[in-house]
């Protein structure tokens, strides 16, 4: 045995977002399934080859997904909601459609071998897309499965739906087939699947009340079948991810680990149990003692656990140490990593494996392709391809320290770390002085909400149930083309400005026609809500190809915060002023808040995140004040990412929320009482942060509620949330045009708990991913719903 390197997952989307483009072309009917499958196959082949060429010993499979890896697993286990399944119409009584899960086709248990030759007909590629996009097999609209953030990342997974008493059967071959496919190409692979406890834990109950924990017994046989099938496909290792081991777990769940992994022991397949995104903490003894062949831990987020874990580790077990950061883009300080790995190796010898901290799903693909980054900044970075190489270099430095290439890489890495530490680009004394001068007054509005809202209402004169939108309107091809032509220098600044102004004018006219009360300019100038602002702030750098999957076909290109942040000039003021000049109705100024600016960027790892957040807050507070001076009476500061920053462990949360709230309040508090501050948050659960959200003291908050049937609103109701609130009345993730009555009902339900005079009417989120026809149709109905409510409540 010699020291082994492996990877936990490679970004599936492709360096040119090939998968995204193919998915979307398929949904538009421009390519057929065979063509789509071909793109997937090509990407997998290229990514496996890249890792093999770098010298990675065990290459992951199962990291590819057509939409989301959790959804793939749901399909694998036959856990597809009845309403999305192919035979939904034929085999399920209509009134039961939404209550039944699992695969009717498999109600008589199939042997694995029989299954292999007769795969489930209820599930195919289109089924996966229907779950994610909210379609019944007939093509009719139905509710999509919920989507929620994957731990504290900006990746979103499809939440598995569970029903009392349901059973599970292997029903979708993808992970197995792709494992066989990689093996056939000559690779030594390690399939990666989410473990049964995390899978259940991360899902939610539907239908009659029950505890999804009780489904474990039904679930494990399907996992056993899957393991057998993976072994038959030729795998000798499987990586089973149980990332919930870094969370505060109820005792019942903690105790379940050992019996579950006893039952998952397989004669031919060795299990590497993977945890990431944090420290095992009180779950460490559980993880250390599981009957598995090896354990992977995140040594970037929690380096301190390495040696403790070694103390607990049985003699025969592998310990995989994730030293290369899968969540950030900074080049590894090889020397530092080497010190840790050497310590570990002295204790456990070649039972040590080296890996990235987590799947590289969360990093962009290849920094070499970047042509526009300043050379020094570029030399501080590593994307997935480079991270894989770092892992292999670390192995070489451990096993063959004389190797000249590895030595050169080590020297390079140390030189880059030194250069970054002393670079003048990073430190700005003015920004640091301003930070020092922050007082409590900077984070406080002049008056309390009750006084402010009265003044605002006197000025704005809005009707009850005022209607508004979240900011963006459809990003048409024409808009994208305008931005890209400007970026490429094909049109000049004057032409660009004229065209964007025209878009703004059209957007304002449409909203006036629809009868919306508080208008927006539509965000036509923005490629992305973070990149747009980052581009105009000092301390931010941008990549050309640094795409990371956010969900499905949606990718983001997070900026890189490398230095102290400041605002050299106003950002949105001229667009906002122009938009307001076109209407007598109030037009909302629209900004991305400091916490979202932080968490949707790759952040500095050389200073606390709090410091960076406050720097951004100061820069944005200047923008807020400038908008007010330009005559903007309503300013929205979007903070969809506030919950994302929430530390995974309870004990760390208060400290985070304190500085996050402070950063928002510093951004918002420079204005007069009369200026109405809105904020917006989406795809969140609010229960655990409701107090902090109230502490933001925004005059109005708009939130996502429609996909959870209004469930998300309960947190606000129970807390007696004191300020105005706009529960999103329809799901913007789907092209379905909502029913008036559904929206009326949602708001009536809300009005039972929240005083009607504090309710707003708005969609769940921005409309940038939608097209105009459905947008206008939906908003017309939304305005109609508001009118009905005004007449009734
Ligand atoms: N103002 C943004 C928009 O409408 C908000 C987007 C978001 O919350 N993610 O697009
Ligand atoms: Zn949103």
UniProtKB/TrEMBL annotation:
<feature type="binding site">
    <location>
        <position position="154"/>
    </location>
    <ligand>
        <name>5-methyltetrahydropteroyltri-L-glutamate</name>
    </ligand>
</feature>
<keyword id="KW-0489">Methyltransferase</keyword>
<keyword id="KW-0486">Methionine biosynthesis</keyword>
<protein>
    <recommendedName>
        <fullName>5-methyltetrahydropteroyltriglutamate--homocysteine methyltransferase</fullName>
        <ecNumber>2.1.1.14</ecNumber>
    </recommendedName>
</protein>
<feature type="binding site">
    <location>
        <position position="638"/>
    </location>
    <ligand>
        <name>L-methionine</name>
    </ligand>
</feature>
<feature type="binding site">
    <location>
        <position position="704"/>
    </location>
    <ligand>
        <name>Zn(2+) 1</name>
    </ligand>
</feature>
<comment type="pathway">
    <text>Amino-acid biosynthesis; L-methionine biosynthesis via de novo pathway; L-methionine from L-homocysteine (MetE route): step 1/1.</text>
</comment>
<feature type="binding site">
    <location>
        <position position="638"/>
    </location>
    <ligand>
        <name>L-homocysteine</name>
    </ligand>
</feature>
<dbReference type="Pfam" id="PF01717">
    <property type="entry name" value="Meth_synt_2"/>
</dbReference>
<feature type="binding site">
    <location>
        <position position="680"/>
    </location>
    <ligand>
        <name>Zn(2+)</name>
    </ligand>
</feature>
<feature type="binding site">
    <location>
        <position position="695"/>
    </location>
    <ligand>
        <name>Zn(2+) 1</name>
    </ligand>
</feature>
<feature type="binding site">
    <location>
        <position position="523"/>
    </location>
    <ligand>
        <name>L-methionine</name>
    </ligand>
</feature>
<keyword id="KW-0808">Transferase</keyword>
<feature type="binding site">
    <location>
        <position position="149"/>
    </location>
    <ligand>
        <name>5-methyltetrahydropteroyltri-L-glutamate</name>
    </ligand>
</feature>
<feature type="binding site">
    <location>
        <position position="20"/>
    </location>
    <ligand>
        <name>5-methyltetrahydropteroyltri-L-glutamate</name>
    </ligand>
</feature>
<feature type="binding site">
    <location>
        <position position="704"/>
    </location>
    <ligand>
        <name>Zn(2+)</name>
    </ligand>
</feature>
<feature type="binding site">
    <location>
        <position position="644"/>
    </location>
    <ligand>
        <name>5-methyltetrahydropteroyltri-L-glutamate</name>
    </ligand>
</feature>
<comment type="function">
    <text>Catalyzes the transfer of a methyl group from 5-methyltetrahydrofolate to homocysteine resulting in methionine formation.</text>
</comment>
<feature type="binding site">
    <location>
        <begin position="470"/>
        <end position="472"/>
    </location>
    <ligand>
        <name>L-homocysteine</name>
    </ligand>
</feature>
<keyword id="KW-0028">Amino-acid biosynthesis</keyword>
<feature type="binding site">
    <location>
        <position position="600"/>
    </location>
    <ligand>
        <name>5-methyltetrahydropteroyltri-L-glutamate</name>
    </ligand>
</feature>
<feature type="binding site">
    <location>
        <position position="682"/>
    </location>
    <ligand>
        <name>Zn(2+)</name>
    </ligand>
</feature>
<feature type="binding site">
    <location>
        <begin position="470"/>
        <end position="472"/>
    </location>
    <ligand>
        <name>L-methionine</name>
    </ligand>
</feature>
<dbReference type="Pfam" id="PF08267">
    <property type="entry name" value="Meth_synt_1"/>
</dbReference>
<dbReference type="GO" id="GO:0009086">
    <property type="term" value="P:methionine biosynthetic process"/>
</dbReference>
<feature type="binding site">
    <location>
        <position position="680"/>
    </location>
    <ligand>
        <name>Zn(2+) 1</name>
    </ligand>
</feature>
<dbReference type="InterPro" id="IPR013215">
    <property type="entry name" value="Cbl-indep_Met_Synth_N"/>
</dbReference>
<feature type="binding site">
    <location>
        <position position="765"/>
    </location>
    <ligand>
        <name>Zn(2+) 1</name>
    </ligand>
</feature>
<dbReference type="GO" id="GO:0032259">
    <property type="term" value="P:methylation"/>
</dbReference>
<feature type="binding site">
    <location>
        <position position="682"/>
    </location>
    <ligand>
        <name>Zn(2+) 1</name>
    </ligand>
</feature>
<comment type="similarity">
    <text>Belongs to the vitamin-B12 independent methionine synthase family.</text>
</comment>
<feature type="binding site">
    <location>
        <position position="765"/>
    </location>
    <ligand>
        <name>Zn(2+)</name>
    </ligand>
</feature>
<keyword id="KW-0479">Metal-binding</keyword>
<dbReference type="InterPro" id="IPR038071">
    <property type="entry name" value="UROD/MetE-like_sf"/>
</dbReference>
<feature type="domain" description="Cobalamin-independent methionine synthase MetE C-terminal/archaeal">
    <location>
        <begin position="465"/>
        <end position="787"/>
    </location>
</feature>
<feature type="binding site">
    <location>
        <begin position="17"/>
        <end position="20"/>
    </location>
    <ligand>
        <name>5-methyltetrahydropteroyltri-L-glutamate</name>
    </ligand>
</feature>
<feature type="binding site">
    <location>
        <position position="523"/>
    </location>
    <ligand>
        <name>L-homocysteine</name>
    </ligand>
</feature>
<dbReference type="GO" id="GO:0008270">
    <property type="term" value="F:zinc ion binding"/>
</dbReference>
<feature type="binding site">
    <location>
        <begin position="554"/>
        <end position="555"/>
    </location>
    <ligand>
        <name>5-methyltetrahydropteroyltri-L-glutamate</name>
    </ligand>
</feature>
<dbReference type="InterPro" id="IPR002629">
    <property type="entry name" value="Met_Synth_C/arc"/>
</dbReference>
<keyword id="KW-0677">Repeat</keyword>
<keyword id="KW-0862">Zinc</keyword>
């Amino acid at each position: 045995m010699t020291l082994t390197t492996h990877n936990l997952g490679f970004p599936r989307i492709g360096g040119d977002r090939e998968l995204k483009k193919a998915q979307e072309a398929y949904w538009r009917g421009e390519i057929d399934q065979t063509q789509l499958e071909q793109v997937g196959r090509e990407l997998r082949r290229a990514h496996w080859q890249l890792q093999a060429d770098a010298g990675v010993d065990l290459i992951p499979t199962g990291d590819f997904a057509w939409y989301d890896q959790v959804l793939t697993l749901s399909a694998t286990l036959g856990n597809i909601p009845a309403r999305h399944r192919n035979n939904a119409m034929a085999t399920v009584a209509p009134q039961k459609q939404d209550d039944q899960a699992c695969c009717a086709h498999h109600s008589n248990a199939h042997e694995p071998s029989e299954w292999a030759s007769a795969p489930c007909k209820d599930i195919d590629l289109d089924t996966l897309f229907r779950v994610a996009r909210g379609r019944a097999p007939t093509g009719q609209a139905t509710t999509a499965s919920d989507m929620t953030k994957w731990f504290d990342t900006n990746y979103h997974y499809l939440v598995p739906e569970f029903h009392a008493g349901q059973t599970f059967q292997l029903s979708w071959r993808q992970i197995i087939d792709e494992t066989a496919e990689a093996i056939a190409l000559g690779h030594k692979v390690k399939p990666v699947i989410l473990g049964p406890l995390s899978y259940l834990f991360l899902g939610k109950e539907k239908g009659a009340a029950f505890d999804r924990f009780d489904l474990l017994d039904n679930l494990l046989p399907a996992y056993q079948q899957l393991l057998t099938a993976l072994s038959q496909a030729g795998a000798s290792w499987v990586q089973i991810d149980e990332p919930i081991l870094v969370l505060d777990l109820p005792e019942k769940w903690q105790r379940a680990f050992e019996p579950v992994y006893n039952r998952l022991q397989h004669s031919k397949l060795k299990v590497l149990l993977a945890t990431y995104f944090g420290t095992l903490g009180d779950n460490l003894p559980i993880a250390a003692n599981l009957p598995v062949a090896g354990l992977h831990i995140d040594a970037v987020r929690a380096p301190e656990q390495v040696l403790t874990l070694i103390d607990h580790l049985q003699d025969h077990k592998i310990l995989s140490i994730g030293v290369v950061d899968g969540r950030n883009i900074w080049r590894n300080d090889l020397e530092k990593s080497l010190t840790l790995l050497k310590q570990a190796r002295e204790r456990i010898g070649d039972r040590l494996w080296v890996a990235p901290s987590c799947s590289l799903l969360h990093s962009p693909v290849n920094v070499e392709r970047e042509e526009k980054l300043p050379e020094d900044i570029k030399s501080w970075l590593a994307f997935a391809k480079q991270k894989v190489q770092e892992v292999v270099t670390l192995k070489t430095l451990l096993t063959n320290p004389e190797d000249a290439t590895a030595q050169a890489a080590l020297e390079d890495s140390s030189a880059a770390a030194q250069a970054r530490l002393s670079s003048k680009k990073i430190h700005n004394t003015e920004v640091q002085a301003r930070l020092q001068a922050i007082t409590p007054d900077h984070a406080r509005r002049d008056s309390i909400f009750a006084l402010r809202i009265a003044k605002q209402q006197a000025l704005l004169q809005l009707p009850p149930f005022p209607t508004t939108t979240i900011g963006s309107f459809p990003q048409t091809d024409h808009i994208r083309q305008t931005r890209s032509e400007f970026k490429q220098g094909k049109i000049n600044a004057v032409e660009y400005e004229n065209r964007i102004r025209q878009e703004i004018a059209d957007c304002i006219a449409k909203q006036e026609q629809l009868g919306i009360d508080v208008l927006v300019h539509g965000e036509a100038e923005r490629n992305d809500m973070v990149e747009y602002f980052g581009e105009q702030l000092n301390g931010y750098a941008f990549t050309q190809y640094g795409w990371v999957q956010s969900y499905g076909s949606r990718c983001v290109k997070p900026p890189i915060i490398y230095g102290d942040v400041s605002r050299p000039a106003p950002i949105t003021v001229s667009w906002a002023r122009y938009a307001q000049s076109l209407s007598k109705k109030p037009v909302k100024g629209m900004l991305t808040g400091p916490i979202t600016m932080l968490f949707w960027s790759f952040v500095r790892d050389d200073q606390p995140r709090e410091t960076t957040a406050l720097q951004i807050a100061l820069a944005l507070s200047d923008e807020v004040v400038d908008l007010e001076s330009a005559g903007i009476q309503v300013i929205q500061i979007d903070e969809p990412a506030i919950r994302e920053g929430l530390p995974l462990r309870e004990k760390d949360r208060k400290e985070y929320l304190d500085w996050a709230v402070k950063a928002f309040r510093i951004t918002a508090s420079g204005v007069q009482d009369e200026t109405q501050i809105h904020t917006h948050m989406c795809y969140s659960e609010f229960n655990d942060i409701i107090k902090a959200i109230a502490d933001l003291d925004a005059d109005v908050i708009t939130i996502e509620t429609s996909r959870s049937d209004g469930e998300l609103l309960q947190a606000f109701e129970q807390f007696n949330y004191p300020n105005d609130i706009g529960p999103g009345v329809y799901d913007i993730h789907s092209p379905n045009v909502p029913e008036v009555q559904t929206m009326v009902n949602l708001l009536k339900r809300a009005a039972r708990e929240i005083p009607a005079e504090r309710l707003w009417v708005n969609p769940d989120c921005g409309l940038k991913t939608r097209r105009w026809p459905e947008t206008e149709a939906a908003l017309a109905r939304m305005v109609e719903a508001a009118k009905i409510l005004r007449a009734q409540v």
